[in-house]
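Aim 2, interim progress. The first record below pairs a target sequence with its C-alpha cells.
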Amino acid sequence: MISIDEFNGIYRQYVDAVFRVTLRAVGRREIAEEITNEVFLTLYQNGDSLTTEQLPAWLFTVAKRRAADYWRRWYVEERWQSEERPSPETVTPELSLEDLLAKCTSLKPVHRACIVLRFVQGMSRAEIAAQTGLNELQVKGHLQYALKLLRDALTTRRPASPPAEEMAADA
C-alpha cells in the first residue's frame, strides 16, 4: 500500500477532477460522491502497482467503470421493477372474507373479531381497541397474526392445479 502522505497528496490533487467525471457520468451528487470514495479506496489498496505517469488515467478509468457498474445495476433493478405483476385492484379474490374466515379454523375469536371490525366494518385500530377493550398494540398484534394465519391458510389449502379426478370428470 502507498503511504498516507502520498495518498493524501494524490487525493488533494485529483479528487475534484474525479468527482466531476463521476458526476457527469451518473448525474446524481450523492452517487458521484460514493463512486469517488470507492475510486480512492481502490487506489489506497492497489496504489503500489501504479507509477505516477499511469495515475491520472487509472483514476479516471476506474471512475468511469464504477459509473458504468452503477448504471448496469440501475437498469437491472428498473427492469425487475417494471415486470408485469398483477396489481391488487386487478386480482379478483376467489373467496370472500367470510368464506376465508370460516375455512381458517386456527383463528381464535379475538382474531376473527379484529379482522371483521377492521376489514368489514372499516374501523381504525383505536376504534377496535375501544370496542373490544384491548389496547391498540394488542389490536395491532392480533391483526398481524390473524393476517399471517389467513395467508398461511390460503397458500396451504389452494391446490396448484385441479386434481386429476376433477379434470377427468369435466372431460
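The second target in this work package is listed in the same format:
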Amino acid sequence: MLKIVSGVSAAVLLASIVALAPSADAQNAKLNDAQIAHIAYTAGVIDVKAGELALKKSKNKEVRDFAQNMVDDHKAVNDKALALVKKLKVTPQDNDVSKSLAKQAATKEAELSKLSGAAFDKAYAANEVAFHKTVNGALQSTLIPSASNAELKGLLETGLKLFQGHQEHAEHVAADLK
C-alpha cells in the first residue's frame, strides 16, 4: 500500500535515494521497479501535501498559484503512475527510501506549519526549489537509469521534464519573495 506523506527536506531526499542507488559495488542491491514506483509516488505526494499546506497558509497570490500548480500537476502524475502500476500488475514496494521520506516529511511539515505570512512563503518557496532540484537529480541519476520497465521509465522521463519546469517556476517565486 502507498503511504501518504508530506513535505521533506531536499537533503534528506537526496541522501535517502543515494543510499539505495546502484553503485559499482555488486553487493549493493539495485532498486527494482516496484521500489522506484513507490519512491516516485511518495515524492509526488510530498509535493501535493506541501502545496495543500501553502494553499491553507499563504495569502500571497504568486505562492498560492504556484502551490495550486504543484497540487494539480503532482496529483495528475501520481494518477498516471497508479494507472500504470495497476496495468502492469505491480504492487509498489515500500522501502528504506520511502520510509525515510515519510519520516522526514512529517518533520518538514511541522516546521512549515509553525510559520506564517512572508516567513512561511519564503520557507515554502525555498523548500520547493531544493525539493525539485533534488528530485530532478535523483530521477536523472538513479530512478530513470534503474527502471527496467520501458513504460515506467517513460513516465519518469515525462515527469522529469515537468518537474524541471517546476524547479524553474519555484526559483522564480523564491526570487520574487526576497
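The chain has a mean pLDDT of 85. This observation will shape the mutagenesis plan for the next reporting period.
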